[in-house]
Amino acid sequence: MVMYATKLTRRKxxxxxxxxxxxxxxxxxxxxxxxxxxxxxxxxxxxxxxxKTNDDRVAFLRGYGWEVxxxxxxxxxxxxxxxxxxxxxxxxxxxxxxxxDLTRYQGRKCQLYVYQVRNDPSGETGVTANLVLYRDNLIxxxxxxxxxxxxxxxxxxxxxxxxTQTPSEGE
Length: 171
Fold this sequence. Notes:
Layout (H helix, E strand, L loop, with lengths): L9 H23 L2 H10 L9 H10 L10 E6 L6 H11 L12 E8 L10 E8 L2 E9 L6 E3 L12 H4 L1
Antiparallel strand pairs: 1-2, 2-3, 3-4, 4-5
């Protein structure tokens, strides 16, 4: 057994307490697995959630009234741009209406899951639901038409249907 004796000074006490605090904070972040940031936004908006499995993603979409095929038509890694152009700014404004914000994920690699929607209120075919996840946390969600002059709307907006106009239709 090795023993070490030292005189406890104020400086050593402060350094020791800071080290213990750092370990507690680090352990808390590790145990939460990055959920601390999500928890603060989840308190503000219920759409922010963790979607670990395909069943979770399908259940999320169905919870907002969207009937989708069980399996995604596409799963791919995407990178959120470091700076947003006008199109990305507009898309992020749509996300903000749902309580989501992509700005904190700029430059990050994320996963995009695309599901075929079977019950869009407009009756249009070729409508997809897109979910963007970062570490299984939902960071963006939309419903869009595959048509070149189609629409993009919030996943929380089931009533839009054929009332939604694209800028070219509204001009």
